[in-house]
């Protein structure tokens, strides 16, 4: 089953999430659309405040008041999730779509053993004997690379290292073999060597079990090592999408270019880094047109109008002056 | 005359943390004839030198002792053994800090600035207390440093919560430099910042270092950042320095298997024409520093 030919398992169409404030609603996610095929890993990249995490939460219907999903559609295997009753959502959450969070300490209950927590997660969607549950839990722990998994079931979270805790959280998220996993910066708090181990294992899980993943991260390098496709978010909107290698090598949107160029590895040691001037505008004070225009060196008066997403083959960009193309056009004319 | 390349001299520094003993605990140990509780050796036998105007990168994973070493150099912790000298003078003597010549910029600019103190006052406080400037000159002095770190001097009357993370880190740098330190220690100064803001702060650091001929210790778990800013680099593992040398040679031709493995586990964007970068993860995890393996600490995980 290749991702290209199979039917998408998740289809997101014009998703909009708002947060009510005394000064009016702030749109944290503004018209995000994408689809995900079984076994595919896509990276959702952006800086703090870009709306990437809220997008992840919205997919699972985990946005609490004062936030609300203001519009759009999220279809999981053809079933609409937006507007679904909380009871029905609960039946699907954890079983068909699951989430892995950044901080495994906050995810795990410190008062229960890992085994008890896994048993509870199993019991939420399945009737199993305690013995069968323990069997299944140990298997899941072993699969994410925890040694002597059976003995570790009786351990408490504080007895695990940070990397082991995140593995346990991943094992819980994968217990029911969900079709889609949303991972929100799952390796950001971990050391590079542990991060490398987990990325290695996640790739194997996606390949072997056909789990589709949305990997939310601010780290372009991590995403490039993991995801086949990248979505770049800025101020609540998708500004660029496409196959990882193409987006990173030949970005169309000036913001993507800026992100790549500002990495220390893009410049010779000791030399000044290329920096994007300014910082991301507050959601309440977005410019009317392209949100990146005030920081963009290519911006013209035309950028005062909101650019639409331009789709071209597998690539897409929301920019009036896409990089790499204009130069070619100019050269041609 | 001290040789110029021994501006910072760390000699055989160790730090052992012991848990505090309660009366009952002491009694129980006396009765059961157990010795004193085992200490946690956070830093052991570290010796290094740094020339004036150079930057030393200190890298390693969490728990390797890099921050503890930084704190010992800054005179925040007293070493259990060994000495740290700057320009020939000890940073700490008899467990008492003897110098203001070392200043630190910490990771979290939200925690390192007093939320109830105007940022200008935070920058001026140290220099006034230590007699570097007269209180009447404070305003001008602060404004000069604000301009130097790329902040609008008129913002000095604001409180920390009115600034973004990147701006706060600039304030923290101004606060440290206003003390006119001989040695600046940066403990993960850009770890909590976004990529685009991180680039701005690194550039500021490079600029200031050149203008002021700063001698720096740059602590980070981010190898690409350390490679970018350091002249020399020390790789730490479980309290020991496992590799020390010029940045170019340590990153280009790592001698220690741990350094090599660490470099391999850093994700990077594949270069033009290169296939997707494959990881070679290090097996296992860092052993507990309470009970480190005998001999080479890395031996149980070493691929060679």
Q: What is the mean pLDDT of chain B?
A: 88
Order of helical and strand elements of chain A: EEEHEEHEHHHHHEHEHEEHHEEH
Which two chains share the most extensive interface? A-B, 41 and 42 residues
Uncertain stretches of chain B: none
Main β sheet profile of chain A: 8 strands, mixed
Total strands of chain B: the figure is 12
User: How much β-strand is present in the residues of chain B?
Assistant: 15-25%
Widest sheet of chain A: strand order? Answer: 6-7-8-3-9-10-12-11
Question: What does this entry look like structurally?
Answer:
The complex is a heterodimer of chains A (333) and B (304). Chain A is α/β, with parallel strands linked by helices and 333 residues long. Chain A has helices at 52-59, 86-92, 104-107, 114-123, 130-143, 149-152, 162-173, 192-209, 220-226, 244-249, 254-261, 325-332; strands spanning 10-21, 24-36, 41-45, 67-76, 79-80, 97-100, 180-184, 212-217, 229-234, 237-243, 310-312, 315-317. Chain A contains 12 helices and 12 strands. The mean pLDDT of chain A is 89. By secondary structure, chain B is α/β, with parallel strands linked by helices. In chain B, α4 crosses α5. The interface between A and B is large, with 41 and 42 residues.
Structure summarized in a few sentences:
The complex is a heterodimer of chains A (333) and B (304). In chain A, β4 and β5 (79-80) form a beta hairpin.
Topology readout:
The complex is a heterodimer of chains A (333) and B (304).
Chain A: E1 10-21, E2 24-36, E3 41-45, H1 52-59, E4 67-76, E5 79-80, H2 86-92, E6 97-100, H3 104-107, H4 114-123, H5 130-143, H6 149-152, H7 162-173, E7 180-184, H8 192-209, E8 212-217, H9 220-226, E9 229-234, E10 237-243, H10 244-249, H11 254-261, E11 310-312, E12 315-317, H12 325-332
Parallel strand pairs in A: 3-8, 3-9, 6-7, 7-8
Antiparallel strand pairs in A: 1-2, 1-4, 4-5, 9-10, 10-12, 11-12
Helix pairs in contact in A: 4-5, 5-7
Chain B: E1 8-17, H1 23-31, E2 40-50, E3 55-59, H2 66-73, E4 81-86, E5 89-90, E6 92-93, E7 96-97, E8 102-105, H3 119-129, H4 138-148, H5 165-177, E9 183-187, H6 195-212, E10 215-220, H7 223-229, E11 232-237, E12 240-246, H8 247-252, H9 257-264
Parallel strand pairs in B: 3-10, 3-11, 8-9, 9-10
Antiparallel strand pairs in B: 1-2, 1-4, 4-5, 6-7, 11-12
Helix pairs in contact in B: 3-4, 3-5, 4-5
């Amino acid at each position: 089953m290749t991702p290209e030919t199979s039917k998408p398992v998740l289809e997101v169409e014009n998703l909009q999430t708002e947060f009510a404030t005394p000064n009016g609603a702030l749109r944290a996610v503004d018209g995000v659309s994408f689809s995900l095929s079984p076994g595919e890993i896509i990276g959702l990249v952006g800086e703090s405040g870009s709306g990437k995490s809220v997008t992840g939460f919205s997919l699972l219907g985990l946005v609490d008041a004062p936030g609300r999903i203001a519009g759009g559609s999220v279809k999981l295997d053809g079933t609409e999730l937006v507007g679904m009753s909380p009871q029905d959502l609960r039946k699907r959450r954890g079983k068909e779509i699951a989430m892995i969070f950044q901080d495994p300490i906050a995810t795990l209950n410190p008062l229960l053993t890992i085994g008890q927590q896994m048993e509870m997660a199993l019991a939420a969607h399945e009737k199993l004997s305690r013995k069968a549950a323990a069997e299944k839990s140990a298997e899941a722990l072993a699969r994410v690379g925890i040694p002597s998994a059976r003995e570790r079931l009786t351990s408490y979270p504080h007895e695990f290292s940070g990397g082991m805790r995140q593995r346990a959280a991943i094992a819980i998220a994968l217990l029911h073999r969900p079709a889609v996993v949303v991972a929100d910066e799952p390796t950001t708090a971990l050391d590079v060597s542990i991060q490398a181990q987990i990325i290695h294992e996640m790739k194997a899980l996606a390949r072997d079990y056909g789990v589709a993943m949305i990997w939310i991260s601010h780290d372009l390098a991590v995403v490039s090592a993991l995801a086949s496709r990248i979505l770049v978010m800025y101020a609540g909107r998708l500004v660029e999408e496409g196959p990882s290698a193409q987006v990173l090598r030949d970005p169309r949107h000036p913001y993507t270019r800026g992100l790549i160029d500002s990495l220390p590895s893009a410049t010779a040691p000791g030399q000044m880094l290329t920096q994007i001037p300014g910082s991301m505008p507050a959601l309440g004070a977005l410019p009317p047109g392209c949100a990146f225009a005030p920081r963009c060196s290519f911006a013209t008066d035309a950028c005062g109008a909101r650019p639409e997403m331009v789709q071209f083959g597998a690539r897409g960009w929301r920019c009036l002056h896409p990089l790499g193309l204009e130069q070619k056009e100019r050269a041609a004319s | 005359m001290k040789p110029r390349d021994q501006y910072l001299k760390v000699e055989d520094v160790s730090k052992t943390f012991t848990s505090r003993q309660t009366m009952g605990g002491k009694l129980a140990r006396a009765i059961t004839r157990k010795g004193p509780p085992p200490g946690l050796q956070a830093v052991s036998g570290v010796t290094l030198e740094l020339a004036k105007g150079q930057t030393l990168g200190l890298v390693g994973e969490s728990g390797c002792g890099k921050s503890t070493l930084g704190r010992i150099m800054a005179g925040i912790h007293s070493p259990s053994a060994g000495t740290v000298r700057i320009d020939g003078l000890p940073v700490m003597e008899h467990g008492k800090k003897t110098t203001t010549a070392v200043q630190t910029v910490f990771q979290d600019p939200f925690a390192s600035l007093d939320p109830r103190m105007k940022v200008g006052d935070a920058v001026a406080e140290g220099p006034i207390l230590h007699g570097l400037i007269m209180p009447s000159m404070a305003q001008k002095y602060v404004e000069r440093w604000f301009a130097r770190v790329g902040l609008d001097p008129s913002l000095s009357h604001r409180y920390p919560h009115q600034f973004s993370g990147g701006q706060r880190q600039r304030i923290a740098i101004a606060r440290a430099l206003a003390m006119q330190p001989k040695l600046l220690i940066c403990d993960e100064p850009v770890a909590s910042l976004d990529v685009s803001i991180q680039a701005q702060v690194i550039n500021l650091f490079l600029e200031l270092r050149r203008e002021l001929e700063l001698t720096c210790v740059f602590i980070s778990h981010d190898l690409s950042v350390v490679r970018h800013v350091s002249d020399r680099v020390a790789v730490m593992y479980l309290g020991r320095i496992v590799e020390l040398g010029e940045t170019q040679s340590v990153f280009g031709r790592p001698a220690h298997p741990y350094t090599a493995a660490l470099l391999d586990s850093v994700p990077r964007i594949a270069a033009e024409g290169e296939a997707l970068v494959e990881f070679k993860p290090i097996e296992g995890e860092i052993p507990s520093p309470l009970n480190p393996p005998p001999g080479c600490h890395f031996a149980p995980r070493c691929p060679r």
